[in-house]
Amino acid sequence: MSNRDLKRKDFAWHLPMATRWIDNDKYGHMNNANYYSVFENVVMTWLEVVNGFNVDNETVRCFTVENGCQYHDAVRYPDELECGLRISRIGNSSVRYELGIFRKQHETVCASGFIVDVFVDAVTEKPVTVPDEFRQAMESLII
Q1: Which domains are assigned to the chain?
Q2: Half-sphere exposure for 132 (CA within 13 Å, toward CB)
Q3: Predicted TM-score (pTM) above 0.85
Q4: Could you report the average pLDDT of every consecutive run of 10 residues in the chain (143 residues)?
């Protein structure tokens, strides 16, 4: 399946969000940098708000080591969006989140992307095993 063919049902969790007038570029589309901001907001909301994890604690932290985005259809203010989240892989020290941005009430993906985070020791910043509580919660996002 191509990323362009992704549908809402392909994601385990969704976060609604509004676009802002300031999100648009001079062509009237949401600026490409803002898609990455949406992706990060969705992952951090799921981790910190939904699951109550502190990803900036004294023992372990998450560092983004890779990300990407494909644009399929323009998003613009005042679109109301929903961003879907799923996990395609949990490794020893890393996780790959996959995301899809949809207009509210639409099934066609406007943008798809990914974030790879590595769990690191808060002091040495060297990779560590994904903590069990994170791993258990993340398994609910695997489709």
Answers
A1: 3-141 (3.10.129.10)
A2: 0
A3: yes
A4: 87 96 93 95 95 83 96 96 98 98 95 97 95 95 92
At 3 the pLDDT is 86
What contacts 64, CB < 8 A, 6 or more positions away? 40, 115, 116, 117
Rounded distance between C-alpha atoms, residue 110 and residue 126, angstroms? 36
Gap between the Cα atoms of 73 and 29, Å rounded: 10
Number of CB atoms found within 10 A of residue 72's CB: 17
Q: How far is CA 118 from CA 1, 58, 59, 75, 80, in A?
A: 27, 16, 14, 30, 31
